[in-house]
Amino acid sequence: MVQRVGVVGFPIGHSISPAIHQAAFDALGIPARYERWEVAPADLPAWVAALRAPQTLGANVTVPHKEAVVPLLDALSPTARAIGAVNTIVHRDGQLYGDNTDAAGFLRALDEVGGVPRGAPAVLLGAGGAARAVAYALLQAGIGALAIFNRHAERARALAVALQAHAQVPVEGFPLDAPQRAERLARCALLVNTTSVGLHGDERLLPPAEVPAHALVVDIIYNPPQTPLLADAERRGARTLNGLPMLVYQAALAFECWTGHQPPLERMFAAARAALA
User: What is the residue range of 251's domain?
Assistant: First the structure.
């Protein structure tokens, strides 16, 4: 029997997760088909219920469902519970378990460029499901302070309050246009964009002059490989990292959750690069 698994989002046509995961299943000879599932928010409960079908391994979850899916599941991993967002669902004997591999995937990606700047301040753009995972990862790894900026001020502040309850360092939430933005950017060692701004066209969240030249600038967008933020950072002499390593590492961890097998990382990276070529 061919098992089914896939990625759910809205929209989802841009995702290269099918190429990455199918390469892994094929390399290990596992009879599974990885699909794209475009599901509108109103249809999410019915879609989750359908995951209980015997032939379904589970799913990856992306925008805008990472937080909304949480109350629809039977149980959460400690990591997913702490983050408040799920990017991986595992189906076991009719029960659906939510996990989050974004946090560990993000940290492993940072290891490729020197790791988390421990004890130093960081700035995070965005306050959605991906932002929750990145913020959790940074705080667990020893960042010195975290400032969150978001277009919707209340979401930034709410996330900061939730994180501060478990953090030993200052966590602040601000509207994107807050007067504190320039100062926080000027002294940060790490800037991470977790929003979708940069996927299309030349839209920016920050004026180029505010992009910190001395920091590591990370954009979790992987297509295009260089977003306007990363282009601005490169022009200013900053170190940069796009979202492809995080995408593959979190995918590898999800693959292990579903199958119990060590993922073929080289095959997964090769499939991701080929899909973007």
Answer: 3-100+245-276
